[in-house]
Target: Histidine phosphatase family protein
Amino acid sequence: MILVRHGVTDFTVSGRLDGRGGADPELNAEGLAQAAAVARIVPGLVGDQQVRLVTSSLRRTQMTGAAIAAALGVVPEADPDWDERAFGEWDGLTSAQIQERSPMKLARMRVDAAYPPPGGESRSEVAARVGRAFERATAAAGTVVVVTSRVPILVVLGQVLQVGAERFWALETEPASVSIVTLWPDGNVSVPLVNRTDHLH
Model:
């Protein structure tokens, strides 16, 4: 599984949350350039293996995925279970604004996987749907490229690496980055690559 985070939007650049159920922003000019850059390297990572490409239902992942799909010569599939976490009432706000308005709720959300932002999803809820999406994506042989957002990528990497809930945010997954998870026939899993971004520079 090749995990690709989408390119930047105006929300990403300004540090505003943009989860499922929110404004659903498109890639901006920088994000489109990042999508083109990551599309140039993914075919080399796939090689001659059979490949599928799955995106979330959000526009920024579909736009990033379209560039990669064109480079691979495949038709992208959409799976809403790969959507970014729903941030509810906090969607569109920066961390500083949330800290100012709801410091106790924000602090709890960061450490309690079962606690959702107001009107949003808890990390446990996101992990459940991403887990279903992961199983569907890896059911067939070959390589699957998944274009999604930060929290779903952290869910996959955290589960595979058995990272404790208190260290959930420790891994970096920058916009238009690439991470790879390899699933072996004997059931073992390895992570040969996390947060590759050299193609952007």
Notes: The chain has seven helices and six strands. Strands lie at 2-5, 51-55, 77-78, 143-148, 178-183, 189-196. The first strand starts at residue 2 and ends at 5. The longest helix spans residues 29-46.
